[in-house]
UniProtKB/TrEMBL annotation, chain A:
GO terms for cellular component: ATP-binding cassette (ABC) transporter complex; periplasmic space. The keyword Signal applies. GO terms for biological process: peptide transport. Residues 106-484 form the Solute-binding protein family domain. It comes from the Bacteria. GO terms for molecular function: peptide transmembrane transporter activity. CDD domains: PBP2_clavulanate_OppA2 (cd08506). Pfam families: SBP_bac_5 (PF00496). InterPro entries: Peptide/Ni-bd, SBP_5, SBP_5_dom. This is ABC transporter substrate-binding protein. Residues 28-48 are annotated as: Disordered. Keywords: Signal. It comes from Streptomyces finlayi. Residues 1-23 form the signal peptide.
From TrEMBL, chain B:
The lineage of its organism: Bacteria, Bacillati, Actinomycetota, Actinomycetes, Kitasatosporales. Pfam families: BPD_transp_1 (PF00528), BPD_transp_1_N (PF19300). It is a multi-pass membrane protein. This is Peptide ABC transporter permease. It comes from Streptomyces finlayi. Residues 110-319 form the ABC transmembrane type-1 domain. The keyword Protease does not apply.
C-alpha cells in the first residue's frame, strides 16, 4: 500500500498537468501534491465502497453504450458481463466474496455447501448442493442442471463461453454438447444434490474454476438452444422481465430466491433497468450532472478519457468515480522467434529502456492505469505486484545501451504494432526506447483486425502490445496462456505473442499445474513469474483501471477485483430508494 | 404502364441480386473469420471446425450463396436436432453475434430509422422548399441572399458537428430537452417526438440547405417559362400562378432527389443514430460491420438497396402525376 501511494504521489503531478487539471495553482508544490493524492481515485477510492450502505428498494439504472454479447451462462465469457450475470441472474457452485480490494479474491461457496472436496489426487472433485435452492418458477435447482449447463459449453450452437470444461474434464473427445441428446460420463450426479467431476489431470484450483458461469444451473426443460441467450432462466435474486436486444433490459425480483441461502448477494434495488446503445460521452455527462433520475444511474462502459478533466478536478464528482484495477496486465511482448529478440540480451535492453512512467501518463495517468512490475496482476499476487528487477519507473536507458553493446547490437530498428486506440501509449514507449538507441516504427491496426494481424506468427512484428486478463485469480489462468510455447498457433495466435518457447518454462508450468496444494502452487506461480521475467520475453508495462462513474444517489458501489474492476452488482443499490423514481 | 412496371421490377430484382453477390464475395475475401469471432477467446481447432460447420461456413461460396437465396423464398434450418434454428420466409439468415434472425432484427430497427427519416424529411421539405421558393420569388434581394448564404453554411456543416453542437447547446447548456432515448410512437407521440426532435433538426438542417438551393434554381427556371407569362396575362391570381404552374413543374427534380434521400435514410442514418443513441438500422449496420457479422451486413445492405431502387421506381411513377406530359 505504501509503495502504491508513493507511486501515485510521484506521478499525480505529471498527470494533473497532462489533463490540464491543475486546479490549485496558488498552493505550494507539496500541498498540491498531497491534496491530489488524497483525492485521487487511484489512491482514495481503492478498496473503498462509494456511497455507503444502500437501502432496500428503488430502481437502479445502468446506462450502456452496447448490448450484452451473451447472457446465456454457457456463453458468457466477458468479465464485466460475467459479474452482471453471476451477481444478478444465476448462481454458481462457488463464487467470490462481494468485497472490495484483496478480500474480493476470496472464494465462498454459493450453490454448494463448501468449496468442493478433491480425491484421487486432485483428479476428482465433488460438490454438494445446498437444500432448498429454487429457480424463478419455484422449482428446485438440482445437480443434474449444473451438469447440463457444463455440457452445453461443448455445443457448437452455443459459442463464446469459457472452455475450461472442455480442457479439464476427462473423456470429452468428440463431444458436441447435450443438444443432440448425448451426455458426458465424466460428470456424475449420484443424487439431486451431489455432482462429481472427473478430470483429465489433477487440478488443485478447481474451486476457482467452479466460479465461472459454466458452473451455473440450466434446467433441461428450459433449453432453447441459441435463443436461450435472450431469456436465461433465473436462479439468482433477479429475473428478466423484458429484454429488447440492443435497447433495454429490465430485471425484477425473483420471489423464489431465498436470501438465507445466499451469503454474497444483497439484492438491494427492486429493479434494474439497463438502457443500451447510448453514446459514451453522453453517459459520462449525464452521470456527472446526476440530474433527476440520472442520480440513480451507473455507467456500464468505461468513462472516456476526455471526461477525466471534468471529473478529477472536482472532489464532489471524483468521489463518485470507482476506478478499481482491471486485473489485466498490458505487456510489451517481444517476438522471440527471430532477430533481434531471439537474443535475451536485446530483450533485456528493452526491459531496461522502456519508460513505463511515460506510458502511464499517456494512458491518462494513475487515475486510469498504473505501472506493472510483474506479469501476473495484483489480484493474483496478494494485492501488490513484486518488483524483482527493480528498474526505475522511467527506465534506465544507460543500462539498456550497455546491454545492447554487450549483445553486439548498438542500435536496433524494430516495428511495434498496436491497435489504433493504443497509439498514444505506443508513442510514449517509442520515445523511451529511442533514448537507448532502439528505433521503433509504430504501425497501427484497427481494433477489429488487430488479433488477426498480430496472430499470424510468420508475419508478426518484432513488438506488440498484448494484454491478458485471468479468468480467476490463479496463475494457471495466466502464465500458461501467455508463455506456454505449445499454445502458439500458426494463425489466430493469442496470448503468447512473444512466441516464447522455453523448455524449462514449459516443464515448470506442467509441474505447477499438477501440484495438489493450492497455497503451494500459488507460491510456485509467483516464483515462475519472476523466473520468466528474468528471461525477458515481454516487458510488463501497465495495469489498467476500470473508471466507472455512479450517480449521486447510488450506494454500495465498488469495482470487483476479479471481474476486471466491474461494479459488483451483488451489493450495489440506492441511498434513498424513494428519490427520483418514476 | 403494366409492361413498364414489370420491366422495372425485374430491374429491381437484378440490382438486388447483384448487390447480394458482391457483398457475399467481399466477405469471403476478407481476412476476418466469423467462426473464430463467434467461438471465443481460446478456441481449440476442433471446436473451431465444429462451429464453422454449424454456421455453414465450411461449404463452398457458391453453395452458401445458393442456400442464402433459396432461404429467402423457402426459409431454411440452421443446425440440426431439436434446437436447430428455424428461419422462416423471408429468411435472410441468422446473426452470428446474437443468433437472432436478420429479418427480425431489421423489422425491429426499421421503426426507429423510419421515425427518424420521416420526421426529418417533413422538416427539411418545409424548411428547404419554403426557403427555396421564397428566395426564387425574391430573386437577388437581401432575403434571397440571406437565405442562400444560410443554406451554404448549413450544407457545409457536417451532420456530426451539428449533432454534437445541438447536444451541447440544447441539452447540456440550456437543459431544455433530455438526452435522447428512443421511445416507440405507441408509447406516446409526445415522448416520441421530444426524443427525436434534435436528431430531426440535425438531419433536416443538412438536407434543407441542399433542397433550398435546388428548389430555388428549379423555381427560377420554371417561373421564367413562357406559360407562366401566359398564366399571368390571363389574369390568374399570383398565388395560383406560383403554386399550380411554377411549383408543380419546378418540383420534378426535387422529387427525384427526395425519393433517393428518403430511401437512403430509411435504411439507417449511421452517424446520426450513433450520436443520438437511436437503435436504428444504421447502428445495427455499424455494429455488425465491426464484428464481421456478415448476415446482418448483408441484410442491411439489401434492405438499403431495396429502399433506394423502390424509391426510384415510385419517383418515376410519380413523374406522371406531377408532369402531365410524362406517360408510360
Amino acid at each position: 500500500m505504501i509503495q502504491r501511494t508513493r507511486i501515485a504521489l510521484a506521478t499525480t503531478l505529471v498527470t494533473a498537468l497532462a489533463l490540464g487539471a491543475t486546479a490549485c495553482g496558488g498552493a505550494t508544490k507539496n500541498d498540491g501534491g498531497k491534496g491530489q493524492a488524497r483525492n485521487n481515485p487511484a489512491a482514495a477510492n481503492d478498496g473503498k465502497i462509494v456511497g455507503g450502505t444502500p437501502a432496500k428498494g428503488g430502481t437502479l439504472t445502468v446506462l450502456s453504450n452496447q448490448d450484452f454479447s451473451h447472457l446465456d451462462p454457457a456463453r458468457n465469457w466477458v468479465m464485466p458481463i460475467m459479474d452482471f450475470g453471476i451477481r444478478l441472474l444465476y448462481r454458481t457452485l462457488v463464487t467470490f466474496k462481494a468485497e472490495p480490494g484483496k478480500s474480493g479474491s476470496e472464494l465462498v461457496p454459493d450453490l454448494a455447501t463448501d468449496l468442493g472436496t478433491s480425491s484421487n489426487g486432485g483428479r476428482t472433485w465433488t460438490f454438494t448442493l445446498k437444500k432448498g435452492l429454487k429457480y424463478e418458477d419455484g422449482s428446485e435447482i438440482t445437480a443434474q442442471d449444473i451438469k447440463y449447463n457444463v455440457e452445453r459449453s461443448f455445443a457448437p450452437d452455443l459459442t463464446g463461453g469459457p472452455d475450461y470444461a472442455a480442457r479439464l474434464l476427462a473423456n470429452t473427445k468428440g463431444y458436441t454438447g447435450p443438444l443432440t441428446g448425448k451426455h458426458l460420463d465424466s460428470i456424475k450426479t449420484p443424487d439431486d444434490h451431489t455432482i462429481v467431476f472427473e478430470l483429465n489431470r489433477p487440478v488443485a484450483e478447481f474451486s476457482s474454476i467452479a466460479t465461472l458461469p459454466t458452473f451455473a444451473p440450466v434446467p433441461q426443460k428450459q433449453e432453447k438452444g441459441a435463443q436461450y441467450d435472450a431469456r436465461p432462466f433465473s436462479s439468482g435474486p433477479y429475473k428478466i422481465d423484458s429484454y429488447a436486444r440492443d435497447k433495454k433490459l429490465v430485471l425484477v425480483r425473483n420471489p423464489h430466491w431465498d436470501a438465507s441461502t445466499d451469503t454474497v448477494r444483497k439484492a438491494y434495488p427492486d429493479k434494474f433497468v439497463v438502457v443500451m446503445g447510448l453514446k459514451g460521452g453522453q453517459i459520462d455527462d449525464r452521470i456527472i450532472a446526476s440530474g433527476g433520475a440520472d442520480a440513480n444511474a451507473v455507467q456500464w462502459s468505461d468513462m472516456g478519457a476526455p471526461s477525466a478533466a471534468k471529473v478529477l478536478p472536482k472532489p464532489a464528482v471524483k468521489e463518485r468515480l470507482v476506478a478499481e484495477l482491471s486485473g489485466c496486465t498490458t505487456m510489451l511482448q517481444l517476438n522471440t522467434s527471430r532477430a533481434p529478440f531471439n537474443d535475451p540480451k536485446a530483450r533485456e535492453a528493452v526491459q531496461y529502456a522502456l519508460d513505463k512512467e511515460a506510458v502511464v501518463t499517456a494512458g491518462g495517468g494513475p487515475a486510469l492505469n498504473e505501472i506493472a512490475t510483474a506479469y501476473m496482476p495484483p489480484s493474483m499476487t496478494g494485492g501488490k505486484q513484486p518488483d524483482t528487477l527493480k528498474i526505475a519507473p522511467a527506465g534506465d536507458p544507460e543500462k539498456a545501451k550497455q546491454l545492447l553493446k554487450e549483445a553486439g547490437k548498438p542500435s536496433l530498428d524494430v516495428t511495434l504494432t498496436v491497435s489504433t486506440g493504443d497509439k498514444a501509449r505506443a508513442e510514449a514507449a517509442q520515445q523511451g526506447l529511442g533514448k537507448a538507441g532502439i528505433k521503433v516504427k509504430i504501425e497501427t491496426v484497427d481494433p477489429a483486425a488487430y488479433n488477426d494481424a498480430v496472430g499470424a506468427i510468420k508475419s508478426a512484428p518484432e513488438m506488440v502490445f498484448g494484454g491478458w486478463c485471468p479468468d480467476y485469480p490463479n496463475g494457471s489462468s495466466f502464465l500458461p496462456f501467455v508463455f506456454d510455447g505449445r499454445f502458439i498457433k500458426e494463425t489466430g495466435n493469442m496470448g503468447n505473442n512473444s512466441q516464447f518457447r522455453d523448455e524449462a518454462t514449459m516443464k515448470r508450468l506442467d509441474e505447477i499445474a499438477a501440484m495438489p496444494d493450492v497455497a503451494h502452487a500459488d507460491k510456485a506461480w509467483l516464483d515462475l513469474d519472476a523466473q520468466i521475467l528474468a528471461k525477458h520475453p515481454a516487458v510488463p508495462m501497465i495495469i489498467g483501471r476500470k473508471p466507472l462513474l455512479v450517480g449521486t444517489n447510488v450506494a454500495g458501489a465498488f469495482g470487483h477485483p476479479v471481474w476486471s474492476g466491474q461494479l459488483d452488482y451483488a451489493t450495489i443499490g440506492l441511498k434513498d430508494p424513494k428519490k427520483n423514481q418514476g | 404502364m403494366i409492361t413498364y412496371l414489370l420491366r422495372r421490377l425485374a430491374g429491381v430484382l437484378g440490382v438486388l441480386l447483384a448487390i447480394a453477390a458482391v457483398t457475399f464475395v467481399i466477405f469471403y475475401v476478407l481476412p476476418a473469420d466469423p467462426a473464430a469471432a463467434a467461438c471465443g477467446k481460446t478456441c481449440s481447432p476442433e471446436r473451431l471446425e465444429a462451429v464453422r460447420h454449424h454456421l455453414g461456413l465450411d461449404l463452398p461460396l457458391w453453395r452458401q450463396f445458393a442456400d442464402f437465396l433459396t432461404g429467402i423464398f423457402t426459409g431454411r434450418t440452421l443446425g440440426t436436432g431439436q434446437y436447430a434454428l428455424q428461419c422462416d420466409f423471408p429468411c435472410l439468415g441468422y446473426s452470428y453475434e446474437n443468433s437472432l434472425p436478420v429479418w427480425d432484427l431489421l423489422l425491429d430497427r426499421l421503426p426507429v430509422s423510419a421515425s427518424l427519416a420521416v420526421g426529418a424529411a417533413a422538416l427539411w421539405l418545409v424548411l428547404g422548399l419554403g426557403a427555396g421558393v421564397v428566395a426564387a420569388l425574391r430573386k437577388n434581394t437581401l432575403t434571397d441572399r440571406t437565405l442562400m448564404v444560410g443554406a451554404v453554411a448549413a450544407a457545409s456543416l457536417p451532420v456530426y458537428f451539428t449533432s454534437v453542437m445541438l447536444i451541447y447547446g440544447v441539452i447540456r447548456i440550456a437543459g431544455i430537452l433530455p438526452y435522447p432515448e428512443y421511445h416507440d410512437f405507441t408509447a406516446g407521440p409526445v415522448t416520441w417526438a421530444i426524443n427525436l426532435l434534435l436528431p430531426w433538426i440535425a438531419l433536416a438542417l443538412l438536407y434543407a440547405a441542399m433542397y433550398a438551393r435546388q428548389s430555388r434554381g428549379s423555381m427560377i427556371e420554371a417561373m421564367a417559362e413562357p406559360y407562366i407569362r401566359t398564366a399571368r396575362a390571363k389574369g390568374m391570381p399570383e398565388r395560383t400562378v406560383v403554386v399550380k404552374h411554377g411549383l408543380r413543374s419546378g418540383m420534378t427534380p426535387i422529387l427525384t432527389l427526395f425519393g433517393m434521400d428518403l430511401g437512403g435514410l430509411l435504411a439507417g442514418a449511421v452517424i446520426t443514430e450513433s450520436i443520438f443513441g437511436l437503435p436504428g438500422v444504421g447502428r445495427l449496420f455499424y455494429g455488425a460491420l465491426s464484428t464481421a457479422d456478415q448476415p446482418v451486413v448483408l441484410g442491411v445492405t439489401l434492405m438499403a438497396a431495396f429502399f433506394i431502387v423502390v424509391a426510384n421506381l415510385v419517383v418515376d411513377l410519380l413523374y406522371a402525376v406531377v408532369d402531365p406530359r410524362v406517360r408510360y
